[in-house]
Design goal:
The complex is a heterodimer of chains A (about 110) and B (about 110).
Chain A lengths: L4 E3 L2 E4 L5 E6 L6 E7 L6 E7 L2 E5 L6 E5 L5 E5 L8 E8 L8 E2 L3 E5 L1
Parallel strand pairs in A: 2-11
Antiparallel strand pairs in A: 1-3, 3-8, 4-5, 4-9, 5-6, 7-8, 9-10, 9-11
Chain B lengths: L3 E2 L4 E5 L4 E7 L6 E7 L6 E7 L4 E4 L2 E6 L4 E6 L8 E8 L3 E3 L3 E6 L1
Parallel strand pairs in B: 2-11
Antiparallel strand pairs in B: 1-3, 3-8, 4-5, 4-9, 6-7, 7-8, 9-10, 9-11
Classes of the chains: A mainly beta (about 110), B mainly beta (about 110).
Amino acid sequence: DSGVTQTPKHLITATGQRVTLRCSPRSGDLSVYWYQQSLDQGLQFLIQYYNGEERAKGNILERFSAQQFPDLHSELNLSSLELGDSALYFCASSVGDQNSPLHFGNGTRLTVT
Amino acid sequence: DQQVKQNSPSLSVQEGRISILNCDYTNSMFDYFLWYKKYPAEGPTFLISISSIKDKNEDGRFTVFLNKSAKHLSLHIVPSQPGDSAVYFCAASAHDMRFGAGTRLTVKP
């Protein structure tokens, strides 16, 4: 058990809809990362937060947004969903040092129909 | 932007033999490299890491080698065990952490 909790585990929704994925980091970790894994693809970095502030941005679409709250949990919002957004979305946390290993949740599987 | 590449999608090895997983990177700013292991229905878990100032790091059956001039790193597992069967991700860190596409290792009994 990594200590990182992601909810929900599965999500099925229709094109054009909006969903929110939630992540609770490991106790004591200040940094949260979001990654997208599409079929047979690697982990695509989306965004990183540290102690409530955005620290780094990757290949995150404008339709996607995220935030980290004062209690350090994070939410990833995906809007105007398209079929191609179907993927596994992983949240990871770390103490915050850029070289610290990441601790991953078990992911949220999003299916857009 | 594929800054971290794992060109072998899969690798099959006999139990007891050595497994060698390879990874290449393009960004010279990466200064820390990690390997993660992923079982089905779980998130990746950290396995071993190496700083750019070193060329080798060993932890039990796992050794990571770094060749900075070639921008190449490899993970050696010896001896390989059936429980090592998983997807292995290479990752590199600069301002954030970037991952390769993964290599599926199958260790046959």
